[in-house]
Amino acid sequence: MPVGNLGPEEAVTTSPDASLDEVTNTLESEGVGAVVVTEDDSPVGIVTDRDIALEVGNTEDIADQSVESVMTDDPVTVRKDEPAMELSRTIEEHNVRRVPIVDENDKLAGIATLDDLVATVGEQLDNVSETIESQSPDYQP
After folding, report:
1. What CATH number is associated with residue 83?
2. Whole-angstrom Cα distance, residue 20 to residue 33?
3. Which domain holds residue 27?
4. Sign of CA pseudo-dihedral 38, 39, 45, 47
């Protein structure tokens, strides 16, 4: 299964000059934990609810601060046609929970999360279990 089939088709995005106030409203209204920062439809950063929460103690008035000031620059990405195992490797290697998915032109195609990966693995294990049960009629779990 390709990575592009794991996450939402559309990622929530913002621009680097958006304010943190705008982004926190977007996080809440969209019900997501991260926003991909894009320029010309390519990911240039990612900002998470955790990034914003950690900034609260460092700055008096963070609402007017730009996303660029707290985002993770140059986020790790995975191509949408890569196998799902590439997402697993990327999450482990870079210690991240969310990975923007890009197309062959490095344009944002979606986002996949650790939760997406776990859900997919669970579905695959269910399929394997059903196959084992159908091929072994005497098997009782």
Report:
1. 3.10.580.10
2. 14
3. 3-135
4. negative
Q: Are 113 and 100 in contact (CB under 8 A)?
A: no
Closest C-alpha among 100, 119, 116 to residue 108: 100
Please tell me the total count of domains within the chain: 1
CB 115 within 8 A of CB 7: no
pTM for the whole thing?
0.80
Half-sphere exposure (Cβ direction) of 45: Cα atoms closer than 13 Å: 18
Examine residue 15 and state whether it is found in any structural domain, yes or no: yes
Helix (H) / strand (E) element for 73: namely strand 72-73
Domain-embedded: residue 140 = no
Reported as a single tens digit per residue, the pLDDT across 11-70 is 999 999 999 999 999 999 999 999 999 999 999 999 999 999 888 877 778 888 899 999
Q: Please, are residues 109 and 83 in contact by the beta-carbon 8 Å criterion?
A: no
